Amino acid sequence: MIRLTRRAALAAGAASATLPRFAIAQADNRPTITVAVQKISNTNTFSALREQSNVGTRVATLITERLIDLNYQSKLEPVPGLATEWKRISDTTVEFKLRPGVKFHDGSEMTAEDVAGSFSPQHMFGETRPTVRGQTIALSNTNPAVFTKELIRDVPPVARRLWPALDRVEIVDKHTVRFVNAAPDVTIEGRASVRGSDIVSWKAYNAASSWLEYARKPTGTGPYKVREFRPDNMLILDAHDEYWGGRPPIKTLRFLEVPEASSRVNGLLSGEYQFIGDVSPDQIPQIERNRAFKVQQSLVPNHRLIVFDKNNAQLRDARIRRAMTHAIDRKMIVDGLFGGRTSIPRGLQWDFYADMLIGDWNVPNYDPALARQLVRDAGYKGEPITYRVGPNYYTNQTPTAQVLVEMWKQVGLNVQIKMVENWTQIFERGPERAVRDWSNSATFSDPVSSIVAQHGPNGQQQQMGEWTNEEMNRLSVELESSTDRARRRQVFARMLEICEREDPAYTVLHQTVVFTASRSEFKWKASPSFAMDFRAHNWG
Fold first, then answer.
1. How far is CA 468 from the centre of its chain?
2. Residue 143 has pLDDT above 70, yes or no
């Protein structure tokens, strides 16, 4: 509530004699901020069950939220979100108390029915049944028109990956729900904090004339709501002034797609943009030479990978894939292309795994002699191996690919870059699909969130038909359902051995680092995440 001094009140009264009353009521001095980015959304939607990309994360938390949030101003530890508290009922059940009085973007109140609807078969899997499995009350107004096979083709795989054993969501009362799993799961709380577990207005979802209409303008509870979206061009978000976390400090956020990195930098320096994302390390000195601007660095829980398709004729032999992992001088990449601003992790894991961290594990060592021996042992005759590379989706993507190809050449591997325009072309099946770029995030502090989510039986790589391993699949199920932490740690160690050494599904290059530039005057802190936090506590 704005309080006026006596003098200000008199001035306002005098002004009202000459100005229309609505002009005073609508006065809003909050800024409009323009953010230039390389890409807004990979799928041109904001459905958290489909838009699972790094770039999509940047705006996702501004629109929709989850029961358990992350502390974006610290170390991404879990904090209350749309749930104020939660407790374990059993190995299979967690109860959540919902935050009362939370308003969706359309002004309606969030209740347990919205939570149940968000995790219903209709929303998670595109099914048209009118009730949630095992739920205590029926959900009404399901609109079959929302579910079009072509548009939701990516949704069920993501849902299975995030919630492989969720049996039902029970509504206890208006502000209480229970998540009931079909099997024991120590990670239910972590899964509730993951993008894809976002809560949307069940009423608005069913009122949408099509799934695409909903996915491009979801009715969430976040601090900003979608006003306009032009695919591959622009996203405009307006403040959601009934936001439970406090009045948003920005009146309007404009995200613009500016694919050319130099154009983003020039636009920042000229004042056209107030923030720019996806800054390359070599651009930082140019920006920082002007004291009116600053660059913030964020090491995020995401690792850059090279991913293998073991169905490829040349990569079918694991020795070739192993050779590729040992041919990489990761330190040269980190120092030469990133100025030492990131690090080489201990394989596909993160320090916040705590007691699940395999401390004595490392990425395959740089050993070109061993790589050459593996190539000879495999009987490789110089056949071309295609490396599909996108248009600089990742920071320094093309230079990194060029360096890798040269390193592989030094050990006798004929890897050839094929530049493509989009992810559809990268994933296109065929005999030439062999090597591609990727990254893998730990979305909560357990290996299930990364190695299983991306490379397990429900994972993206296996869904794409690139790689599978029977033992890995069996261990994935055990890791997801076991409550014995000592055994789970043993299982995880064996999974790393399979995926990174014996039968490589991928190889880790370095931890992902994100650079964001802005005007120095802004009291805004970059998060250790792809997400950009423009809530009241992180502004001014």
1. 24
2. no
Are 396 and 272 found together in one domain?
no
Q: Which residue has the higher pLDDT, 146 or 522?
A: 522
Residue in 49, 53, 70, 48 with CA at minimum distance from that of residue 155: 49
Q: In terms of DSSP H, where are the helices of 18-53? A: 21-25
Going by C-alpha positions, the residue among 188, 180, 229 that lies closest to residue 51 is 229
| Rounded Cα distance, 432 and 488, in Å | 37
The model's confidence at residue 26, banded by pLDDT at 50, 70 and 90, is low
- The verdict on 288 and 319 lying in the same domain is no
**Domain assignment present for 31:** no
Helices assigned H by DSSP within 121-181:
121-125, 155-162
Assess if residue 159 is contained within a domain: yes
When mean pLDDT is compared across 152-161, 205-214, 325-334, the lowest value belongs to 152-161
Angstrom distances, CA of residue 431 to CA of 393, 428, 486: 24, 10, 42
Q: What's the CA gap between 465 and 461, in Å, rounded?
A: 7
- What pLDDT digit, counting tens, does each position of 458-500 carry? 998 999 999 999 999 999 999 999 999 999 999 999 999 999 9
- pLDDT value at 373 more than 50: yes
User: What are the strands, taking DSSP E only, across 154-266?
Assistant: 166-173, 176-181, 224-230, 234-239, 252-257
Phi–psi pair at 297, nearest 5 degrees? -110, 135
CA-based radius of gyration for the chain:
25
CB neighbour list of residue 139: distance below 8 Å, 6 or more residues apart: 113, 116, 117, 120, 122, 130, 131, 132, 202
505 and 530 both lie in a single domain: no
**Does residue 30 lie in a domain region?**
no
Residue among 432, 375, 363 nearest 408 (CA)? 375
Would you tell me how many other CB atoms lie within 10 Å of the CB of residue 377?
13
pLDDT, average across residues 276-296? 96
Rounded CA separation 32/496 (Å): 47
CB 192 within 8 A of CB 172: no
